[in-house]
Amino acid sequence: MYPSQPYNHYLHSGYANPVTKSWQGDSTILKSQLIYPIFVTDAVNTKTEIKSLPGQYQISTDLVIEFMKPLVEKGLKSIILFGVITNTESKNPQATSATDKNISPVIKSIELIKKEYPDICICTDVCLCAYTNHGHCGILTSDNLIDNEKSIKRLGELSLSFALAGAHVIAPSDMMDCRIAEIKRVLFEAGIGSRVAVMSYSSKFASCFYGPFRDAAGSGAKFGDRSAYQLPAPSRQLAVRAALRDQEEGADFVMVKPAGPYLDIIREVKDAVRVPVCCYQVSGEYAMLWHAAVAGGIDLKSGVIESLISLKRAGCDIFITYYTPQLLEWLLQ
Ligand SMILES: [Zn+2]
């Protein structure tokens, strides 16, 4: 029986065999491309499960080495640290606890991890919201508006203190204008600009998908919201401009956040920049997959891996995901 249509309308032959199927697209995701977010607190001997992020924890710094051990044994290569201040008295408008060696859970954790796991690539989230009493990501004016210049100066100070403690990658998530240039300036002035990378949360949208994270980081804004600095969801132009600007200011990596609902933005940013693109599969995405699996709607492993392959197809080079512990078991290398 001859086909009724031209031969090139028949596609099945191209992926009839498992090997030819694999030629149709690269689905490789490596353990070294995963970054695991860890929430470290100023408490003592405390490991608390985050209700809205089942399976994820806030860990006091004294437990961080023990917490990481099984992950390192399974091939963990990189983490991103988020500081959580549980003692509200340590929070103030200048976010002073962020750079206070006696308080900062991030600085303490970096020092411990560097010593115990010298091969782990340590990224540090840089923002003020976890340390300010108002919960905003920058320094405010007397009218409670963002003071951009004061904010980026303070973010530079945080970046320097994390870098001097030993962080390999500084990752500012605040969305203040021009902070990449300021952070680069500070790092080069300190003589460490060539060995500390900057990963910009460049294209970060104001999103409902961060809900569980705010529980995790204790960083919700006490008034107003973050739409003055995080990007509006429909904006493609701003997302690409922000990535190009941050590349121009010296970012070694740019980021799109959230990931899954913004696949089109990942592709546009990927096509526009000449630095690797990181994608943050955020807490709400994690929770959606988790609850869908618990409800019997999807198989968790298949769902998580397909979600990452989608990010990769869109142009993602590096994945920040709360599913890193599971992926270290699922992935071969
Ligand atoms: Zn923030």
UniProtKB/TrEMBL annotation:
**Binding, Zn(2+):** C127, C129, C137
What catalytic activity is recorded? 2 5-aminolevulinate = porphobilinogen + 2 H2O + H(+)
Name any Gene Ontology BP term. Answer: protoporphyrinogen IX biosynthetic process
Pathway stated in the Swiss-Prot or TrEMBL entry: Porphyrin-containing compound metabolism; protoporphyrin-IX biosynthesis; coproporphyrinogen-III from 5-aminolevulinate: step 1/4
Domain of life of the organism encoding this protein: Eukaryota
Q: Which GO terms describe its molecular function?
A: porphobilinogen synthase activity; zinc ion binding
Class of enzymatic activity (EC top level): lyase
Keyword entries, A-Z: Heme biosynthesis, Lyase, Metal-binding, Porphyrin biosynthesis, Zinc
Q: What is its EC number?
A: 4.2.1.24
Q: Which InterPro entries match?
A: ALAD (IPR001731), ALAD_AS (IPR030656), Aldolase_TIM (IPR013785)
Q: Gene3D superfamilies given for it?
A: Aldolase class I (3.20.20.70)
The record's Gene Ontology cellular component field reads:
cytosol
Q: What does this protein do?
A: Catalyzes an early step in the biosynthesis of tetrapyrroles. Binds two molecules of 5-aminolevulinate per subunit, each at a distinct site, and catalyzes their condensation to form porphobilinogen.
Q: Which PANTHER family match?
A: DELTA-AMINOLEVULINIC ACID DEHYDRATASE
What NCBIfam families does the annotation carry?
PRK09283.1
- Kindly provide the name given to this protein in its UniProt entry: Delta-aminolevulinic acid dehydratase
**What is the species of this protein?**
Polysphondylium violaceum
